[in-house]
Amino acid sequence: MHLAYPAVLSALLFCTGLYGVLARRNAILVLMSVELMLNAVNLNLVAFDVWLSRTAEETLHSGQALTLFTIAIAAAEIGIGLAIVLAVHRNRGTADIDKLRDTAERHGPDGDGHDGTDHDALTAEQSDEAQKAEATA
Description:
This protein has helices spanning 4-23, 27-56, 62-92, 97-104, 119-136.
């Protein structure tokens, strides 16, 4: 088999993963897209390792060893990532990245995070509105 076939497949997988990272809003789908990108890198490592071992006649398969390290790191990354996403989903009620970004980036006009409003009074008003909504429900 020619080297071009796995290289083209790897490029397609990587582009699909990159599109998923840039276009998706759900954190789980973003993690899955990152896994696609890592699998594309693994495919490239193995393909070039096989190609170089044929030409150089070396028995050390460093591309395959690097692939095993990449798989181990990807497993750790997806475990930690899923734990973070589940914790955020339990606290905030959503895994939508745009909504999480909006709640984290509250910057006022002066750039230091304060816009001159009284946040304690604002939260008191919000809690009063929440109590009224619960009473009517």
